[in-house]
Amino acid sequence: MRNGSDPEATGRHHILGLGPRSTPEPDKKPACLVVMHGLRLGYQHPLDLRPVLIGRANTCDFQIDEESVSRQHARLDPSANGLDHTVRDLGSTNGTYVNDQPVTERLLAHGDRVQIGRTVLKYLAGGHIESVYLEEIHRLVTTDGLTNIGNRRAFDDALSRDLSRARRYDRPLSLLMVDIDHFKKVNDRYGHLAGDAVLRQLAVLLKNNLRRDDMVARYGGEEFGVILPEIDRAGAVVTADKLRRLVAIQQFQYDGVDIPLTVSVGVATRGPRDTDAQELVRRADELLYDAKTQGRNKVRS
């Protein structure tokens, strides 16, 4: 940052609602960028009538110190009234993405997700930042910033809640643990940006092929958890195998290159004595491990 301020401290003060920036009048609130995924998670960068240069160089207004970010990667240019902003790629090596689409120049809309290298930023339009920013902080706590689905905390909370309900009413409940096969090879062969793109695309595939009452979350790394309320073991196996087959035929892509992918799945179902959500996770993980050791691209229950 040019002014020598500590962006981490600034971000913490904004999150906690501390300091003089926490209570400006609504009509004076600028637009801002919020880091949704990256090393400065939660940091809020206000935008005003000045262009904002984004890149790896320490002379940039918004510095992102990553190898995948060019020294001068992109620039945000304000409109005359400062209420709208246009993002422009500056010939960066790895490109600038808005809502997962590569762009050279694009007028940003409220809520757009801008990816610079491996950092994901969310654009919040001016005029109503306070309430929206508080909502985004809640999302940061419960949402995986890279894939835009639930994170492990949200998953654990939902599983505990659903298990308690299933026990109370003696209803079935199943759990899938889904893991990408040989994901390290994807990163090694195609690069970490391609690996990030694959994770996002897989999250969309899983979410779009589940019921509204089901939940999918990124449990960690390349592992996803799926909660299936009101589904017994047989139904869970059917769902797991459907997802496995869809992944195997899906054309995952990054920068115009097809990336073949398969997943292994472990399936656990609530038993009459199950009281601990983490015990369900442990069983599903053990079965997932069995699927891996028995050749991958398999479902085990």
Notes on the protein architecture:
- With 301 residues, the protein is α+β, with helices and mostly antiparallel strands.
- It is built from seven helices and 18 strands.
- The chain has helices at residues 7-16, 129-142, 152-169, 183-190, 192-208, 233-249, 277-293; strands at 32-37, 44-46, 52-55, 62-63, 74-78, 85-89, 96-98, 101-103, 105-107, 113-116, 119-124, 173-180, 215-220, 223-229, 252-254, 257-259, 263-269, 299-300.
- It has a six-stranded antiparallel beta sheet with strand order 2-1-11-10-7-8.
- The chain is globular.
* Order of neighbouring strands in the sheet with most strands: 2-1-11-10-7-8
Count the E strands. 18
The share of residues in helices is 25-40%
Cα gyration radius (Å): 21 Å
Quaternary organization: single chain
H/E topology pattern: HEEEEEEEEEEEHHEHHEEHEEEHE
What is the general shape? Answer: globular
Low-pLDDT segments: 1-27
What's the total helix number?
A: 7
Mean pLDDT over all positions: 88
Q: State which percent range the strand residues make up.
A: 25-35%
Could you give the distance between the termini? 52 Å
Overall structural class, as computed from helix and strand content, comes to alpha+beta
Largest sheet: 6 strands, antiparallel
Question: How are the secondary structure elements laid out?
Answer:
Layout: H1 7-16, E1 32-37, E2 44-46, E3 52-55, E4 62-63, E5 74-78, E6 85-89, E7 96-98, E8 101-103, E9 105-107, E10 113-116, E11 119-124, H2 129-142, H3 152-169, E12 173-180, H4 183-190, H5 192-208, E13 215-220, E14 223-229, H6 233-249, E15 252-254, E16 257-259, E17 263-269, H7 277-293, E18 299-300
Parallel strand pairs: 3-4, 17-18
Antiparallel strand pairs: 1-2, 1-11, 3-5, 5-6, 6-9, 7-8, 7-10, 10-11, 12-14, 12-17, 13-14, 15-16
Helix pairs in contact: 4-5
